Amino acid sequence: MEDSQDTQLTTTETMEENQRLLFAINGERFELSSIDPSITLLQFLRSHTRFKSVKLGCGEGGCGACNVLLSKFDSNLNQVEDYKVSSCLTPLCSINGCSITTTEGLGNIKDGFHSIHQRFAGFHGSQCGFCTPGMCVSLFSALVNADKKTEHQEPPVGFSNLTVSEAEKSISGNLCRCTGYRPIADVCKSFACDVDMEDLGLNSFWKKGDDVDSKSQKLPFYDPKQICTYPEFLKKEHKSPMYMEYNKRFWYTPVSINELQSMLTEKDMRVKLVAGNTGTGYYKEVEPYDKYIDLRFIPELSTIKRTDSKIEVGATVSISKLIFALKEERNDDTCTEGDTVFQKIASHFEKIATESVRNSGSIGGNLIMAQRQGFPSDIVTVLLAVNSKVTIMNAVKKEVLTLEEFLSRPALDSKTLFLSVHIPYLKPTKNGYTDKSDTDTKLLFETYRASPRPLGNALPYLNAAFLAEVSGDNVINNIRLALGAFGIKHAIRANSLENYLLGKKLSVGLLYEALKIIRATIQPEDGTSHPAYRSSLGVSFLFEFLSPLINLGDLSINNFIDSRLTFDNCEKTLLKSAKQVLESSDEYYPVGEPIVKSGAALQASGEAVFVDDIPSPLNCLHGAFIYSTKPLARVKGVNVKKDVHDVVSFQDIPEGGENVGPTVVFDPEPLFANELTECAGQRLAFVVADTQKNADIAAETAMVDYETKDLDPPILTVEQAVEKSSFFEIPPFIDLSPIGDFSKGMAESDHQIHSAEIKFESQYYFYMETQTALAIPDEDNCMVVYSSSQIPEFTQTVIARCLNIPDHNVRVITRRVGGGFGGKAFKAMSVATACALAAYKLRRPVRTYMNRKVDMVISGGRHPMKINYNVGFKSNGKITALHLDILINAGMSPDISPFLPMNMVGPLKKYNWGALSFNFKICKTNLTSKSAMRAPGEVQGSFIAEAVIEHVASVLSIDVGSVRETNFHTFDSLQMFYGGDSAGEALEYTLPTIWDKLMSSSNFNSRTEIANEFNQFHKWRKRGISRVPILHEVSLRATPGKVSVLRDGSIVVEVGGIELGQGLWTKVKQMTAYCLKAVECDGSDGLLEKVRVIQADSLSLVQGGFTSGSTTSEASCEAVRLCCNILVERLVGLKKRLESQTGPVKWDVLISQANSQSVNLSASSYFVPEFTSMSYINYGAAISEVEVNILTGETKILQSDIIYDCGKSLNPAVDLGQIEGAFVQGIGFFMLEEYLTNSDGLMISDSTWTYKIPTIDTIPKQLNVQILNSGHHKNRVLSSKASGEPPLLLAASVHGATRAAIKEARKEVHSWKGLEGSDSMFQLDVPATMPMVKTLCGLDNVELYLETL
């Protein structure tokens, strides 16, 4: 008894001694004796340190914005292990003894930027900048590990051991919504030892014509020894297992199985076993646990053991370490079939999640999630195929189970331990089914996955792994077929199919029957999306696996391998060298120069301050929205179960205040629902708590009591809205007059199409920075609000109306926005207003940073639409009349929806339709209000025009390009459709020139011939090429500006426009420097460096207006020019007087004298565009070529060529970034992004798991852009034109090319059916996702092909 007490006492003392969490961040020592075990590294960094570069983009490990470098020291090997992790998933308590490096740790403006930061700026790789710190860390991690390689030769000085392929893939797990990735890839490749300097794109380091050596020397120098990732002081610290206790929550670090089991005996405690913790990215934890047990320090669970027959992998071994072990070469230098199997398993595992997740996520955790919760695991499927086994342990004994037995058991309880997995080293067995005893047996193994992203970071529609032993005469001696992720509880083996194939000789007939069995085997559960598509994938995968062994006549093995399902396996790099052709002009120097975007290096180093980076004021509270999950219901009550500070609702609005949220010029959307909620996703209340985490948990767990008695059914579709006559009015000032006589045009036609239909779904903004605001009560009943807003002026007014105070009592400040795309315009108002209302009520600062799910649920996004059209046309393709009936789904409130018809009509008029008429209806439905999103209405209108052209070409069976050209405007018809003011002068109509240039520069005709030849010789891959023009009308708005010169000659500028990443500040700086040069001081060429543009402040510069519509940059520049003209007029006379006395006058001397003589050195202006020149048309064209895999529906964009008319670009580098970024965002709309709702209209595409924006592996392999310098436009700002939104419309060329490829596939399938002609009449909806493309290519195309043999 005494011994037991002594032992217990000793253990307690040891725990108290070990209650110390020690780590380093950027070389600084941190030691904590008490911390909440549930807190993540990200939360600690952002709330307890000054290192704010790590951003919360998703909280799921799916975006890379929170990436940090984690470094560990292995004292046994005396070496440091470095790898990137997702700090949003990493428990703080798990980093004991570790060192963390963020991008701030690489460099800064005071001590000097790191070469990574400098190159991000110089290659124009940062726009809004919110994702840039995470990108920098991802690249740095790749560099650190590449420079540890010992098998490579020493790289050239200033470069690393990184290869180009590794450099590109280093950011494959990072999302960016602004740039389009191409310049970021150039940054990464610029460090690679095998880079071709000629392949690197536009940058500020060298000029055209510089030789390779000169270019290398001009790059910011990279020194691999510059950064120490693991400080010496940490190496000297004693690292004992850590224990932490905080507020009755515990963190334990056992070092043995026995110790672990003793910790699992307590009852009535919620226990979590922790290894990598990455599962919380998928299965969100609403409630913290009572006890966290870190398993990583138990030797039996953390080691890899290799024998001649297997690899045994401990449960806590990370996926990345397993990949490394599988790739590791054996000592005997022989490569057998078993080694090949391991290599293929490793290759498949590299497509799981992101590298930062693989570095932390454990094998055991992945398998446990699959067993307990049905996680659609690739690892399970692959290991199932190779007959892996697992070892588990309960309180009594260890058990070794096959993976099938493990999966089939009931969900393991928390006290059953997963110890290890055994992956066998496979060798062919002696055949038992062939008569030829001397025939060798071959071991065949392949893995498959079809997912929206080739490099992973996306769950598959289906994964599979097939293993077979086949004799020389093609008899199947053994076979294991594993299938998973298709909407079942866990991966399965296709037992009935295996039994059918076993012992049989492969033949076409056998394969045909096998395909029928596998199709029947893959039966997704009810509610699974695209069930038929998933079944067809199984057919495709099995066909690919077995076909090379069968004589299929004209389909040789080599030809089939050339048609591999996984496009990128054989390709060394993701991207090809791209061309950026632009012309800079020194006519208005420095305007027109491709200078680096203002603040780009600060963004890269993490020093740029976004709203959520502002330190919380004293006593600051945090808020989170509770939203409705019902589309139309009475709200009887909201019950918040957690202990929170307050719950704010419409009832808390001050007397005389209004329940007002997003407001345009129509009826506003309420800030909160009253007694009736009108859509799923509507804001009901705002929970206020002491931390953002607690506020989010309280909002997530709140219970809402609904009642629907006596209420009409909700209206969720435009068809229901028409039936109920539920519409918003279109304001009478919007001109929707028809052009020409539709009836006459139809009478003149040779052919007609009636009641054709087009549908559009919604699109989510996916700005990297979610909605955020900080409200601080001020003296005299005032409120200061920091808002990530595109329109601070209107946000100010909405807050004032809600609080019933004058506008001058509300100051809204916006420095920069981490991506907007329209979503930070009206939708940001409610976020700022809710914070202000809570702060007003509680008299304490209140802030919020919305989590990604809530943001996706309530934000609304782009407008869904349904279009019916009738069109008449001649036999040569000339269209004589077009009528459109357009139903726009506005959601529950008007927002900008009544303006959408005006936005749509402009791009609809891109062709000469002869006669054009339209009928718009703005449908009021019980969905979240849709709002402005980059090119709102314009992108749909432009696509409708292209869809009509495609349809006409299909009916006539003529080339779609010729139909486009036949219907191009002459300048006369352009004036008729758009009016003389917008059309401008004849020389400004540059589309015909652009079209011809693009045809030539892209080699369109020869590439078309090559594509046609490719299609003749490839059955399972088809190419398509498409060319699309755009005409995009934009309008300038009145915009304020203010320029002030300070005593030292430095210049401060204020403009109404907000810096969203579009380079507005950069262009304004250039304009300021250019205009003040007119004073002609000595050394005035250096004025650019003296200019600073400061944050928007609604009380400092009034009438700021909107930052939208692509023209805010040029309007702000013009406002600044007016200010500068005033200052120049004031200074020129003084300069001349001084010049006559002392000779040449320097700028700072002039300003000093101006101050002494009381010259007003501040000027304000309000630029109001003339009515006759406020609107103009942007022109551009794109050609895209794609390759479609008709077995899976995957579309690879081979090349896109763009020519876009920027007039005389104010900054070609900035405009290039806008063109590329908009184009790639358009690819997302047309090809990838599904923003889906459930039957109640509640958004279910609410995470990075379910919503896929473009990544570096889904953009064009080659993207060539030419900015056309179209010369003088007398009514434009220094002859410039807009670039922010119009290029997005050009992404329709990718959709058109996909349609062309599908058309070729359907022609092939049509011939397999024994039919003549083609099957070209089909509708390819938006987005053209893999299931849609495969469906149009034929879900049964494999069977149809085999029937022809």
Structure description:
With 1349 residues, this protein is α+β, with helices and mostly antiparallel strands. 32% of the residues lie in helices and 20% in strands. It has 41 helices and 43 strands. The strands form nine sheets. Strands 22-24-20-31-28-29-30-39 form an eight-stranded mixed β-sheet, sandwiched between helices. The chain has a five-stranded mixed β-sheet with strand order 2-1-5-3-4. Strands 10-11-14-12-13 form a five-stranded antiparallel β-sheet. The longest helix has 31 residues, at 1112-1142. The relative contact order is 0.09. Residues 1-13, 434-438 and 555-570 have low confidence and may be disordered.
How would you summarize this macromolecular structure in one to three sentences?
This protein is an alpha+beta fold and 1349 residues long. 32% of the residues lie in helices and 20% in strands.
Write the layout of secondary structure elements.
Elements: H1 2-17, E1 21-25, E2 28-32, H2 41-48, E3 67-74, E4 79-86, E5 99-101, H3 115-122, H4 132-146, H5 164-169, H6 182-189, H7 212-218, H8 232-236, E6 244-246, E7 249-252, H9 257-263, E8 271-274, E9 291-294, H10 299-302, E10 304-306, E11 310-314, H11 319-327, H12 337-349, H13 355-360, H14 363-373, H15 378-385, E12 389-393, E13 398-402, H16 403-408, E14 417-424, E15 441-450, E16 462-471, E17 476-484, E18 492-493, H17 495-501, H18 508-521, H19 531-546, H20 557-561, E19 580-581, H21 600-605, E20 621-627, E21 633-639, E22 646-648, E23 676-677, E24 683-689, H22 692-701, E25 703-707, H23 718-724, E26 727-728, H24 742-748, E27 751-760, E28 772-778, E29 782-787, H25 792-803, E30 810-814, H26 827-842, E31 846-849, H27 852-858, E32 865-873, E33 879-891, H28 900-908, E34 916-924, H29 938-956, H30 960-966, H31 971-978, H32 980-983, H33 991-1001, H34 1004-1017, E35 1021-1035, E36 1039-1045, E37 1051-1055, H35 1064-1076, E38 1091-1093, E39 1096-1097, H36 1112-1142, H37 1147-1156, E40 1162-1167, E41 1175-1189, E42 1195-1205, H38 1212-1232, ...
Parallel strand pairs: 1-5, 7-9, 8-9, 19-43, 20-31, 29-30, 33-34, 37-38, 42-43
Antiparallel strand pairs: 1-2, 3-4, 3-5, 6-7, 10-11, 11-14, 12-13, 12-14, 15-16, 16-17, 17-18, 20-24, 21-23, 21-25, 22-24, 26-34, 27-32, 28-29, 28-31, 30-39, 32-33, 35-41, 36-37, 36-40, 41-42
